[in-house]
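Entry:
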Amino acid sequence: MDLYLRATEFFDYDTPAVQAWLARQLEGLPEDPVTRIRALYLTVRDGIRYNPYVFHTDPATFKASHALAQGETYCIPKAVLLGAAARAIGIPSRLGLADVRNHLSSPKLIEWLRSDIFRMHGYIELYLNGRWVKATPAFNADLCHKMKVAPLAFDGVHDSLFQEYTEDGQAHMEYIADHGTFDDLPYAFIVSGVRAAYGHLFPPEGESRQPASASLEQDLAQR
């Protein structure tokens, strides 16, 4: 299990900023690991806003410390932040990657991506009570309310992967491909997968492809 507990370039829980943040989040909580990771899950889910438009190929943007400093990012760095927090308190963690179809994405985001399939969606697996449990802290509660889906809960016992249906029973998200789990963030694999899926977002040098919007929440507010 040592691989799933160590600090790495991306799971950088040994940095002063992450250590200070952890101390604040854990203050007053019991030593029980499930209680602690449930609290950290909620903090990552709701304290770091989900925004797919901020994706960048700079390796630094995939770090747990970067997600914490920016206060907004997308699914992969949010999963890494939760995984780094877990490792810091002695809970083994590993990153999971999959492709998903999101039925309720904004038209602007689909237009920007030219697809309703999200390549390299990230979640985290945590080793609790003798088994691996999946957790997905991607979508913050405010965004979920705008999308008319319940925020995704995590009890530390059961897998928590996605909101399959909206509050009125419409299809919301489905997993269509599984890329496996990793003891550290596979940077080259992620970037090559995203580049293959959305080649138009990787222009030749000297050109630029600006995001369709500033945030997904802004997209939804304008619908």
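The chain has a mean pLDDT of 90.
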